[in-house]
Amino acid sequence: GIPIVNPLSNPDCTGYIFTRGWAVYWDGFHNGLDLAKYGGCPIRAIASGTVISAGWNYWGGGYTVVIDHGTGLVSQYLHGETIWVSAGEYVSAGQEIMYMGTTGNSTGVHLHLTLKIDNVAIDPTTYVPY
Length: 130
Hints:
Elements: E1 17-20, E2 23-25, E3 28-30, E4 33-36, E5 42-44, E6 49-57, E7 62-68, E8 73-83, E9 90-91, E10 96-100, E11 110-117, E12 120-122
Antiparallel strand pairs: 1-4, 2-3, 4-11, 5-10, 6-7, 6-9, 7-8, 8-10, 8-11, 11-12
């Protein structure tokens, strides 16, 4: 498979915490990981690929970046504060793509990371070191 990097590997993210995992909850489906850092920090692309979309997500994700990594793998980064990439742009693994925030349907500063293979959400913990 393709090499995957921790989206919070920037030294400013040291001390981030895992707050909610990928699971089916009584109140519905949580299709990603929530990783929080007080005050936020720069979020990095987990792998190289092409940015599909970068901007406001009207479904509650706030400022969101979506990257197509090829081979059916797509990563989604939600609730950002500031986005540094644009749709159509090629990004490298580890490239900083946005600043962590609490935009959209969010109760605090965190990254919601979703991974999909062939448009089906998968548990990121098996792929992403955190």
